[in-house]
Records
---
Amino acid sequence: MQNIFANISENNKCKLLKTLEANTYYYKKNEEISIKNDNTIGVILSGLIEIIKIDYDGNRTLVEEYVEDEVFGNMFTPIQSNDESIMVRDDSKIIFFDFEEILDSSLDKSYYIQFLKNILLIINEKLQEKNERLEILTKKSIRNKLLEYFRIMAKKHGSKYVYLPFNFTDLAAYLVIDRSAMAREMKYLKEEGFIEIKGKRITLLYDL
Amino acid sequence: MQNIFANISENNKCKLLKTLEANTYYYKKNEEISIKNDNTIGVILSGLIEIIKIDYDGNRTLVEEYVEDEVFGNMFTPIQSNDESIMVRDDSKIIFFDFEEILDSSLDKSYYIQFLKNILLIINEKLQEKNERLEILTKKSIRNKLLEYFRIMAKKHGSKYVYLPFNFTDLAAYLVIDRSAMAREMKYLKEEGFIEIKGKRITLLYDL
DNA sequence: AATGCATTGTTGCATTTGCAACATTTTAGA
DNA sequence: TCTAAAATGTTGCAAATGCAACAATGCATT
């Protein structure tokens, strides 16, 4: 994962923050972060935050989670509606940039060029994540969504093993399918000898 | 839509192309373009190309279409499988860059900085397109997908009118739903007084 | 170890959606 | 202008999926 300050010295980083009017904020656990501006880019220096969705029953599902060095904001994952919010799960320290500000700057220092390249890499990473999810969501059946998800994950790890990064409930939300329907389909996949499941490790028994 | 050469003089553009080893190719109508490298970025100088998907029956559906000044490549819309291909619809002139090459360059000219900023804006535009489609595809019912699509389109035009940029068959493919099921749901929406349809113009009759 | 909460597994049933087939209308090209 | 192909509208029916409800299991906190 690309670090936004990669290959920039501490000294130049300070200059950059000053020029781009970036501000650092501190949040306590369980605070809610509200981002006013669609162009705001948050960088987590320390801590843990998550975007959660609360449905009409009050059930919380995880939409996304961000840890140290990760970048978030409406540019990357828009807060879709008023049932979604950004919550601080561990005390956190966050720097906020403004994307317009970054682009409008007429700096021509080499550390500024490096910063632009870093952001380009980060946005590209985000784009690839979206592409992955779209590849999955453009499959019509639950079975094909699961198989596409497995294919992508297995490819990433370069093996026939898939290690789920979240629990089944959150996986179903990510795939936009009903959890129980997913469990049913997984049972069929097991019965038909396509996969084996041991905890969070899934083994693919077919040719990749 | 952002132009990749915006605010770069013809002269500097030439230097850029040379430094980044960008090559220009000419394609005839109905040729197929094959992109070897995942990092390749194509810029259409003139002409028209499209990504099409051919299903087992030989039916072609439009995945995406690119015209003059637009940018394409696997970074932006990955060719998912061997049933998708990039076809040239009108004679076209295309420049190819390599994303790695662009980032690895140690140029520090102002026109290079401008070029990086332009690409940043383009990738950001692509990211927003993906976010939009994801907002739609994360809705569970056909009705909610349609309403979300209408909401986004109406917001863009700043009015209660939605002008479909493609035909209903392609719209169904974009929303990943069955065409006839979509037609049925649209009929219900009309009957229930939510929308009015006249050709490619849809009027939203509810509060936005 | 005990308690309570979250996660997972399972199943019947209702509903939605996809699919197929066909009629009708529109569009593009000769 | 004519013709063929593409797009659209419509419907019955089958299949897939969501939903609800509940049991079983796992997990964390005291």
---
Amino acid sequence: MADPTEHGIPRAVAIAWGMVQTPQRGPSRGMSHEQIVAAGIEIADAGGLAAVTMQRVAESLGFTTMSLYRYVSSKDDLLLLMQDAATRLPAAPWPPEEEWQAGIRRLAGELREAYRRRPWLLELPRNQTTLLMPNSMAVVDRALSVMAPLRLDMSQKVAVVMNISMMAIAYAQLELELSGSSRVAVDPAGLSQLADVIGAERFPALAPLLEDGEWIGGGYAGASSDVDVELAMGLEWIIAGIERLDAAGGA
Amino acid sequence: MADPTEHGIPRAVAIAWGMVQTPQRGPSRGMSHEQIVAAGIEIADAGGLAAVTMQRVAESLGFTTMSLYRYVSSKDDLLLLMQDAATRLPAAPWPPEEEWQAGIRRLAGELREAYRRRPWLLELPRNQTTLLMPNSMAVVDRALSVMAPLRLDMSQKVAVVMNISMMAIAYAQLELELSGSSRVAVDPAGLSQLADVIGAERFPALAPLLEDGEWIGGGYAGASSDVDVELAMGLEWIIAGIERLDAAGGA
DNA sequence: ACCTGAACACCGTTCAAGT
DNA sequence: ACCTGAACACCGTTCAAGT
């Protein structure tokens, strides 16, 4: 097979789709793409994305750093493969057995859950290349099949998919940031000290929350359960919007 | 003034609110927080976030790397200050002069524009600490004052603010990733090669787009104008949702 | 009090050399 | 053909020393 990168296909995409020949003859290879990707994911799960270094991945497999470059052309390549492998969703029945609304809620929930389980996924960029990887395509395909009965044109459906996955991922991020491991833990004395410095007249609408110590420490913009509510709220708004589009599409 | 960090207030927050004493006596300081932050922003604007190193910031000001640590306790501190300074929105009239719907659209648009202008902002985490910085608080305050006439309770309003800013930022990110500088540029031959490898039966709903070469290269999930449409769509859905909440709140 | 210089413990990636 | 070892050009941050 010709080198896929000649047509502008990124190396990681070619690897993910099995377009890179792994020769059966010659000295047996010590590793495989799958092993390397799995090792990287294990390290990221345990210590976050910053813990993933070429040295550590190689070491965990019992090889030297440099040997990895036989399988992967750069660290970015490896990260792309890890991203794809880690965002595989559970298989869904096809054709969909549920109403499209339920299908969309389930897709959003699974997507969010995948990102919640592996927070380091949030640190990886999602770009055009990502959209060429197998599991990204699987998400789009499933969303399109869920929306098959709807009277939206293709570009509207693509817009909906982008909206939904963006929202699911962004809320996983919000949840992580607001209530996650990166907690601030400003003590009440600190918050009131801050409220004094800011002054009530600078932010008239926000001031009541600040003075009650409710802005960060309290119920608002901090608790994880709030994020559930906010995602559900946003998702139902999207669904209501689709329903209107569907109705208008029939006109 | 007592050391603010004793109450758990992050150093960068204390600096941003002017709670850190800058002594007037003694040897005159060679730099200021503002200068350092401005230098960092200039470097990020020119070369992206990766170009911002302590060495380069110091060098651009004509000092050694280590001198920065007199003003800022770590690179993360500096990044937080840069984030806050770069997300300052233009002053809005207070109290708001427009209808709340227009106010929300304008806020979302300005937020997106700030992130569009400085794409490196998207690479910085937005967490609890961010919500204690002056310009984040300004955004929340403005949104709350826009929503003042609405019959939503405070936690609902906070949820709306989170939804709106999240959506504005996420769409700036989507736009950057889909059509921005990180383009993939797979040529048509590569796309058809990929479509062959994938096969039509694997992704039945997506396959037509793949075969026509429209998935990445063409009109879908690629053009910048699409993102405008998608953001507007999502935003109008949120506004419609708020209208329903407002109506229900009156019951 | 402020700034400097050397040093430490890392990175990703190159390249020529081994087997 | 596959893996290794040394080397390069960087990082952020420490610490003791200068002025």
